[in-house]
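Lab notebook, bench 4. Still working through the backlog of constructs that have no structural model yet. Next entry is a single chain of 533 residues. Request: give me the structure tokens for it.
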Amino acid sequence: MTPNAKTLPSIPLKAAFASKGIVKAELRGEALIRKDNFDKINKEREKEGLTLFANPRNAATGGLRTKDANETRRRGLEAFVYQVAYAVDSNGQSVLPKLESHISGINMLGDLGFKIPKDEKALCKNITEVHQFVKYWEGKRDSYAYEIDGMVIKVNSLELQEKCGFTAHHPRWAIAFKFKAKQATSKLVAVEYQVGKIGSITPVAKIEPVYLAGVTVSSISLHNEEFIRSKDLRLGDTVLVERAGDVIPYIVKSFPELRQGDEEVIHFPEFCPINNTEQTVTLIKEDGEAAWRCPNCVCGAQELQKMIFHVSKDAMDIDGFGKSYVERFYELGWLKDMSDIYNLDYEKIAGLEGFGKRSAENIKAAIEKAKNNPIQKLLHSLTIHHLGKKASKLIAEQIQHVMDLQSWSVDRYLEIKDIGPVVAENVSTWFRDETNIAMLDKMESYGVNLTQTDEDKPLQVAEDAVFSGKTILFTGTLLQMGRKEAEEKAAKAGARNISAVSSNLNILVVGEKAGSKLKKAQELGTVQILDRG
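Model written out:
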């Protein structure tokens, strides 16, 4: 976490920590943008003809993710540090016990020159004081220099924090108190419709623009027909709008008592509202689903959404090839289906306004890399209804070539553990469609891999593997590798990863800040505990 340069002491930071007996530490904090700085940034972007940022939170997140250090600097990020998560002395011993309390750790960070919460923090004697402090800040949130949507209540004693421990996602000794969502009223003036990659039709409310929690809201998803009915929404209604977590706009309710008599009932379309051809397509709703879907797209709208998903990180992960590129190339007529992504004319791309030779080369490199993806990623990227990552991997383990699935029956899919009848039927139907097969043929002719890779193959574990037949669980912060990498290595060594400490656990691997799982394993007395010692 980067300290605020203006408040750093004159001695080097390393020496400052050394004065506290600390040679290695892990700190936690937040990067924020002041509201006034955010307004200045947006005014400058407006002058330059750039897209305005929606809110300080998004601008701060983007500033941390960008690879351009100058862009990060321009966004005026400020770092607040609020926790010493890990600290050891020259002997490798934790010095956290010397701090005794969470708040003393924060104050120490302030002494070292870090920007820390000041008036925004308090040591409360009881839950009544906690409630009073939270409500006080809820009342000040609009006048506060930063956008905030709540406060975090923490156990102050580090000893009690250790006893509380952690889940896989968060500490048990801290809980967020979210302020009541900001609300405003507006008028529902229209409903438009969007289509998704599997043909789901999503209604979108168009309301009179209203400023809410830092942004102007004019469009809100209505999810599906049942949502509209449950809220009794009508065109012309006055509606109550809020932003859940100050992020996602949501219609809370309508006000029937304010109706004038000219409001209109919203009738969900019978035919695909996106279709712009003369051929009508009747919408369908499958049993157990809330969404109406267009089952046979004739206008290309679904194909566009499929291509957007196909290049995304969750699918083929074509780096730098985002939604805007897909939409632009589609409008130019260069993309008609997924196979066209792998047969682009890079000279034409280089000649487009806003691109150039370097951009075209980057796109080409990313596409060439994606061509070698394992077939499990390709299967998932095809947008077969209900076929997710896990099912794609299970199927990829069983085939030598993607086209093998042409001959598979529904029963063959059902032989795979964890593949159900819905997925089996959907995948079988997809591979019986000649249009889909022709698209895959083109993809393969353009160099896209359709053959099983080593990454697709089932994990082969030797009978004499060191952890064969053992269950294993990792807890705490691992210093040499991430949790996912460690679990993969353990699986290759024959272990089965499980998620909880019980009599079924054989081995517990302990990292820093292990918490309650370590204590429970010690109490059981049957678990082999592995740590750095």
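Notes after review: The chain is about 35% helix and 20% strand. The two ends are 29 Å apart (CA to CA). Flag for follow-up if needed.
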